[in-house]
Amino acid sequence: MAAGFGGESCRNILVVIPNWVGDAVLATPVLAALRGHFAKARITYLMKDYVREVVAGGRWHDGEVFWPRGGGPRREWRMVELAGRLKAERFDLALLLTNSFRSALVTWLARIPRRVGYARDGRSLLLTDRLRPLKRGREFVPSPVLPYYVRIAERVGCEVTDLKLRLGVTPDQERAGAELLRHYGLDDGRGYAVINPGAAFGAAKCWLPERFAEVCDRLREEFDLRAVIVGSPDEVPLMREIARAARSDVVCCADPGTTLGSLKVLIRGAALLVCNDTGPRHYGAAFDVPTVTIFGPTHQEWTDTDYAGEIKIQVPVDCGPCQLRKCPLDLRCMTGVTTEMVMGKIRELLVHKCSVGLATTD
User: Fold this and answer.
1) Distances (CA, A) of 255 to 21, 176, 180
2) Are the C-beta atoms of 295 and 316 separated by less than 8 Å?
3) Helices and strands (H and E) in the chain: how many
4) The model's pTM
């Protein structure tokens, strides 16, 4: 660690926040540790505007700057404008939790004296502190992303001892969540399970809609839990398809829908979360909600948290994990996951109260 960047001497810090919702949640132990270590510093987050809802309420930062939207011929000019704004803030230190070239470029253009991140995406010369990712030959080795973020914090003298995921909830998010619970009749004290059938990454991550519908029915039959289907605005057709296929009376949160903020309240109050490998999955760990996660084309290792309340299901296939957004074959990694497999894991969590933190392969 370079001298002069301890908790007392560093006064103005920029943290570049991950773009994916799940990665932002996975970064929260590091964000909390940075706030404690640099207690007297001003900490500003550079992030996508939608990630603001995820980190809101944590009380880990003081200011916010957002990546410019859109592409087109003015994209480069908007990046220059952003760099100029950051330069005017006179940051001492930039911590890059993202691996993109543009995040290194914009902090270099802003003339931030110390820029800490991983030597990836051809950006080594733009960083002052270059961490090396784990590789085997030319290939990146699948490994949990949380320790990856921890190494960045440790590079500037910040020890991260508590790896528990955590989320704050703002008063506005509390009100929005309470209104959704009231609107859908979920505030009557009866139990419910949140079903999140989508995935922003791509269709290959999504389990079959008819099997989600079967799980909704089985949850009502076996546990008297109402299924509450949630998702982004783009996922509303999928949510409604599952609701139509279900025989039981399910709640489809389509109109009004959830936001990344109000979803915190819904998941926090749930008896169970069933989802694909998608960002809100980590809300379950943050709020200690029993979670069953269905994996298809992705490596479990990238997002492993050792959360004891989660069981992960993945069937081995010759072509995977391929990490592809769209399956070029027959989606065998997902079709191989049966409704009974999922229900079996739900029973482990809700009936047997097993403490399961390791990846499970059926």
Assistant:
1) 22, 13, 10
2) no
3) 13, 15
4) 0.91
pLDDT tens digits, residue range 173-191?
999 999 999 999 999 999 9
Bridge partners, 15 (sequence order):
45, 95
In residues, how long is the chain? 362
Alpha-carbon span 253 to 196, nearest angstrom: 11
Phi/psi of residue 194, nearest 5 degrees: -90, 130
Separation between Cα atoms, residue 66 and residue 16, nearest integer Å: 10
Determine, yes or no, domain membership for 3: no
DSSP string spanning 281-297?
A: HHHHHHTT--EEEE-SS
Q: Enumerate residues 6+ apart whose C-beta is below 8 A from 207.
A: 197, 276, 294, 296, 334, 337
Residues 320, 326, 328: CA angle, nearest 5 degrees: 70
Q: Do 178 and 140 sit in the same domain of this protein?
A: no
DSSP string, 308-356: TBEEEEE---TT-S---SS-SS--HHHHTS-HHHHHHHHHHHHTS---B
Do 96 and 195 lie in a common domain? no
Q: Tell me the sheet residues that pair with 350.
A: none
Q: Which domain holds residue 104?
A: 12-155
